[in-house]
Automatic annotation (TrEMBL):
<protein>
    <submittedName>
        <fullName>SDR family NAD(P)-dependent oxidoreductase</fullName>
    </submittedName>
</protein>
<dbReference type="Pfam" id="PF13561">
    <property type="entry name" value="adh_short_C2"/>
</dbReference>
<dbReference type="GO" id="GO:0005737">
    <property type="term" value="C:cytoplasm"/>
</dbReference>
<dbReference type="InterPro" id="IPR051468">
    <property type="entry name" value="Fungal_SecMetab_SDRs"/>
</dbReference>
<dbReference type="GO" id="GO:0016491">
    <property type="term" value="F:oxidoreductase activity"/>
</dbReference>
<dbReference type="InterPro" id="IPR002347">
    <property type="entry name" value="SDR_fam"/>
</dbReference>
<dbReference type="InterPro" id="IPR036291">
    <property type="entry name" value="NAD(P)-bd_dom_sf"/>
</dbReference>
Length: 238
């Protein structure tokens, strides 16, 4: 990747990738390879910038550490997300819905990212392009829901989209050149999606998805703030 790939960002700032899994790791490599940023920081449970998405105090501490850097924070890419664990899986029917599963999905897919916005959006510079992007999912679209199922995941991603939209309204009052967006990466070959990949479904490698997402970031401006976009930059229905 050449510097021109991310030429819409002022050079020399910081990029922060949150979540070091498949997509997050691949995006970090793309951003670092661009040469556009003075440094690409990575935050995660096992990274040097360690934090817990379920613990606001640790998120505040992360923001404090980043805010103490001399470089402007030009990009935050939130690659966190939760679909299932050993105790809870995507619900195929309302019969499978439990309060515990719904609460966990909302905590990790909506509340956690909202707290990242709360503590990191104020760190964005007030002049020049800056972007906060969080990974949503097309299945979180209410208008595009025609097959049902996945109650907790769908609803929590829809809540995330609303948080992004609402935060973008507030951000615009003080940061007129910044953008806060939700991005759908497509189906990516990661441990998160592997058990649910279907025959005939286009599944991309994390590296391919990262290249498309970074190209999308290049084209995002303040007029895109508050939107739900796919990896090509096309607007998705709420």
């Amino acid at each position: 990747m050449t510097m021109e790939t991310l030429g819409s960002f002022p050079s020399g700032g910081l990029a922060l990738v949150i979540g070091a899994g498949g997509i997050g790791s691949a995006v970090r490599k793309e951003l670092a390879g661009s040469g556009r940023f003075a440094e690409v920081l990575v935050a995660g449970r096992r990274e040097n910038l360690a934090f817990d998405l379920l613990d606001e105090a640790s998120i505040a501490a992360l923001a404090k550490t980043v805010g103490e850097r001399k470089e402007d924070l030009r990009l935050v890419f939130d690659a966190t997300g939760y679909l299932y664990d050993d105790e809870h899986g995507p619900e195929k029917s309302w019969r499978h819905v439990t309060p515990e599963a719904i609460a966990r999905a909302f905590a990790l897919n909506a509340t956690g990212p909202m707290l990242l916005m709360k503590h990191l959006l104020p760190l964005l510079p007030r002049r020049g392009k800056a972007v906060f992007a969080t990974l949503s999912a097309k299945v979180g679209s209410i208008g595009d829901n025609h097959i049902g199922g996945w109650y907790g995941y769908r609803a929590s991603k829809a809540a995330l989209n609303q948080f992004v939209r609402t935060a973008a309204v507030e951000l615009a009052r003080t940061h007129g050149e910044a953008a806060c967006v939700a991005l759908h990466p497509g189906t990516v070959d990661t441990p998160l999606s592997k058990p649910f990949a279907k025959d005939g479904l286009t599944v991309r490698s994390p590296e391919e998805a990262a290249r498309k997402l970074v190209r999308c970031l290049e084209g995002i401006g303040a007029d895109h703030s508050g939107l739900f976009l796919d990896r090509s930059g096309e607007t998705l229905p709420w």
